[in-house]
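Structural prep section.
Before we set up the soaks we want a predicted structure of the protein with S-adenosylmethionine in place, mainly to decide which crystallisation condition to try first. Input record follows.
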Amino acid sequence: MNGVAPGPMTDSFGRTITYLRVSVTDRCDLRCFYCMSEDMTFLPKADLLTLEELDRLCFAFIARGVRKLRLTGGEPLVRRNVMALVRSLSRHLSTGALDELTLTTNGSQLARFAQELRDCGVRRINVSLDTLEADKFRAITRWGELDKVMAGIDAARAAGLHVKINAVALKGLNEDEIPALIDWAHGLGMDLTLIEVMPMGEIGSGRLEQYVPLSLIRARLSSHYTLTDLDETSGGPARYVRVEETGGKLGFITPMTHNFCEACNRVRITCTGTLHTCLGQEDAADLRRPLRASTDDTLLHDAIDRAIGQKPRGHDFIIDRRHNRPSVSRHMSVTGG
Ligand code: SAM
Ligand code: SF4
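Run finished without errors. Recording the tokens verbatim:
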């Protein structure tokens, strides 16, 4: 290791950071309408950290007590040679420094990579899928092909990966399809988590038209299913229930209607080396400069300490008629969901 790594990362509210989410690219092969505008401007390649730099940055966080690492994006599997990074990070699983290496993907490239992911020690992945209808899928993603995602999910399951499905609840689009998604996912032994639309990034239309509170969805589901609250939490925003009829687990991520910040154990880094200590605030610390300034990690750890010391107490998302604009200007695809 370069330099001497200081101890664990504990913020000024006593929360210890053990979970790192890394957005390895802001690019994507889809354009989900709630995530990106159709004509997105992506970062110049020169601004990106190399895979070697991302690897070094991740190692610095692991040395500071990160036990779980999630690769996301953009679409992580479209970053050229991303498997070299996965393979390199997997050494921390072998040493026991890391408990879990995982990723969030749209599934479109998964058929190619599923077995290799499994071989690198990845055991669980999240696949984002908002509908089971090909036409609707194309409408939501602007040009995506449902078949590819389904083939990706099949390949992942065949490789022995546990797949969790994430679906954003979209007003007037998939609201009525939630029971079908539950039956399908649980029928294949996959958990399902529903997500509320968050006001992130300019996407060329208002959020109010997309937003449906999960409290409403849950109330509707209660007339179809018996939902039993589960105690478990991931330190994150999801609350879980057991669907008694299917035996499967259903999660609700409700940043808009539920405050989950007290137990927050996570931070995010972008593909340019910017550290965001809160998904819902504009706070940002540049780690690329200290990373590149020397091969020793002292400057990097100093920058991490300063940023963690300023981690905000919580987010402040609002969608209502007066605030029908993004409360955070960066897109989810930059920060990594
Ligand atoms: N491309 C990968 C995928 O779709 O899974 C990883 C990145 S994507 C930004 C991560 C998650 O964020 C996805 O589940 C996506 O549905 C969700 N997401 C994107 N924009 C969102 C928004 N404005 N509100 C809520 N969830 C959003
Ligand atoms: Fe791409 Fe994921 Fe954003 Fe959809 S949600 S546009 S798949 S990054």
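Observations: The pocket of iron/sulfur cluster (ligand 2) is lined by residues 28, 30-32, 35-36, 73-75, 106, 128, 333 (CB under 6 Å).
Flagged for discussion at group meeting.
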